[in-house]
Fold this sequence. Notes:
By secondary structure, the protein is mainly alpha-helical. Helix content is about 55%, strand content about 10%. It has a 3-stranded antiparallel β-sheet with strand order 1-4-5. A 3-stranded mixed β-sheet has the order 2-6-3.
Amino acid sequence: CSPAQCRRANASRRACLIARFNFIYAKDRLDAEICLKKFICDIEMVQRIIYVAALESFRAAKKAFWKVKIGVKATLAADHCGGPLSLECAVMNYIACHKELFDVCCCVREVVCALNVNPKLPCPSDVDFNVISCFIRELCSLAFLMQTLIPPLDVAFGIDGELFSRSMYYRSCDSDFTAPFVAYHVWPALMENGAVIVKGEVVTRK
């Protein structure tokens, strides 16, 4: 395909994926909270779990993407006649159109395992993170497809106690609006080449 067609396809996918990210934040995240609240009374812990699940989903999906990309690139390169830029575009379009290349179930299992061993999530032993597997599955699928964009989209990794950034985060409604530091993160910001595309959400307290 021509460079112009590549740009149009990339822009269209980008808009759809950003909209899907916003929908997961507005709907699926709250559904996941409801599922976890049946087992955990502490709303802060519930929100921490969902935030870590989002980060781990992107981490696992990015790792899976690079494995798929290596195989697809080797296959397409054998018959490719254009330059390296057009090959990259062809690889990205091929992966975006062949979602079955991504083993999302394996990715979900990896995220659940990561939640189980995370020292910042000291949950009761009877809590099964598989109750939010549908939420994790959606995030993994979204994160995988976001890697097919040029440039790719990713989430920002936040640290408790960091200085609150108005350009990167919204304050949660139960925040101390005079506090300058982040107590914990509710949702990650979406980034593109170091720039904030969609703000995340944090709780600030003194």
